[in-house]
Amino acid sequence: MKIRALLVASLLLASSAIAKDKPGKWIKMFDGKTLNGWKTGDNPESWTVKNGMIVGDGVRSHLFYMLHECENCEFKADIRLNHSGNSGMYFRAVFGPGFPKGYEAQVENSSPDPQKTGSLYNIKKVLEQKIPDDTWWNQHIIANGKHIQIFVNGEKVVDTEDGTFTKGYLALQQHNKGSVVEYKNLYMRILPATK
Fold first, then answer.
1. What pTM was estimated for this model as a whole?
2. Within 13 Å of residue 37, how many CA atoms lie on the same side as its CB?
3. Hey, what CATH class is 26-190 in?
């Protein structure tokens, strides 16, 4: 009887987890006040919340959104970056210290790195600086099976296929001391499984 009760409880928990990750609805990832639902791989002092924004300022660190994983998903945010700053929006990333394994949609306008905002880092390079320093812009990622698209202010800058990483977390990058990045209006949406 106890085994049956445990089995029923396990099935109920599993079904509620599946319902929670149901495709279709945009999920607000940031409440504008706290980092609830987020966790750093290391160097947590590099992340704060100021004026309704997540701010990266300090040594290299990655801030992971831990409430949902991305297999097929969309991920978007409004971003502002200082002169010579460097950041990134990771998806299908492995949680942990250092630079995570996973895809990175580059956030970089005027630093020496030739891969500019919108690049799918080391896979599809955008070499033209599209965004001036200290300006808000929107970046939107769609990862559906092997099909990956990145939009910068509504302009499609990457449309490619790659199957290197299939599932993982969404994360924000604070690349180095001197780089200051601000994120707001962070949303994700789970997409139906590809056939």
1. 0.89
2. 18
3. mainly beta
